[in-house]
Design brief:
InterPro entries: 7tm6_olfct_rcpt. By secondary structure, the protein is mainly alpha-helical. It has nine helices and four strands, in the order ααββααααααββα.
Length: 310
């Protein structure tokens, strides 16, 4: 339900932006959308490569022999570790095709979930950039409001324009609050498993003979995980930075020419913007570049622990 509300808010916001016919605002929104789309395509490509390496890996790996009593059996590798209600070595092709099917379903679920989460994280950065633009060009937008609404008084036009800026800011705050309410608990599990997952895949190089297939597999997986973390935590950090700089955007406008009532509103707005918007990892931490570094540090600790145990 929470994700549905977030998506509904995004749809309504986009419809409103398109309806304004403000080419500069639409351009900022489209630039953000294109940047999100290009990042998602890169991530999709990497996950496709990882999935193909998973599927093709058994083809390039030699099987192994096991002994049972007086018999020795040759075991062929499969892409995944799973249980079948039949002997997968006797019906190897059937088991292999089933694993391909499982791999594609699992990869699709991970890909679409990550792309959705990334898009939800990036969305407020675009909205804050639009608000930055409006505040910096406050006099221009005030003139537009005055002309479109047939307002003759500059004070009324200034008040109406800044009230719209406050409304937009409240919409962004509401979105961030809804995201934290819906996703912060899920982000705890993502934060905890990311470092362990990276460490687990990297230790395969430490504990196995080096081969081209192994290097490609581990390299692609590591690159995909790092790109995923960058997409999550870099843009979550952008929300913090951009929201805290809204006061600077007002300072760069013609605030000194505004009537006392609007100056007071701007002052209150600047004080509110000092409290940066943040996407939370549960009640424990904030999604930021510091969290990204913490994941890498935890990865190193896990690798040293696993390597020491081995």
């Amino acid at each position: 339900m929470g994700v549905r509300n977030l998506i509904r808010q995004i749809i309504h916001s986009e419809a409103y932006i398109r309806s304004t016919k403000d080419q500069k605002v639409i351009e900022i929104y489209d630039d953000c959308a294109r940047d999100t789309g290009s990042k998602c395509k890169y991530y999709l490509l990497i996950l496709f490569i990882i999935t193909m390496l998973y599927i093709l890996r058994p083809v390039f790996l030699h099987g192994y022999y096991i002994s049972s009593g007086n018999s020795t059996y040759f075991i062929k590798n499969l892409p995944l570790s799973s249980w079948f209600p039949f002997d997968e070595q006797v019906y190897y092709l059937t088991a292999y095709v089933w694993h391909i099917f499982d791999s594609l379903i699992g990869a699709s679920f991970v890909t679409y979930t990550d792309i959705l989460m990334f898009s939800l994280i990036v969305y407020p950065t675009g909205q804050i950039r639009i608000l930055h633009h409006v505040l910096k060009n406050f006099s221009t937008y005030m003139d537009n409001v005055k002309r479109l609404n047939n307002i003759e008084n500059d004070e009324d036009a200034s008040y109406t324009t800044f009230r719209e800026c406050i409304r937009r800011h409240k919409e962004i705050i509401r979105y961030v609050d809804n995201f934290n309410e819906s996703m912060s608990i899920l982000m705890i599990f993502d934060f905890l498993q990311s470092s362990l997952q990276i460490a687990t895949i990297l230790t395969q190089i430490l504990g196995n003979p080096i081969s081209l297939m192994l290097v490609l597999f581990v390299g692609a997986f590591f690159l995909g995980m790092i790109l995923r973390l960058i997409l999550y935590y870099y843009y979550a950090n952008d929300v913090i930075v951009l929201s805290s700089e809204l006061g600077v955007a007002i300072w760069e406008s013609n605030w000194y020419e505004q009537p006392p009532k609007v100056k007071f509103m701007m002052h209150v707005f600047m004080m509110r913007s000092q409290k940066a918007l943040k996407l939370f990892i549960g009640p424990f931490s904030v999604m930021s570049l510091d969290s990204f570094i913490a994941i890498l540090k935890a990865t190193y600790s896990y690798i040293m622990l696993m390597y020491g145990v081995n």
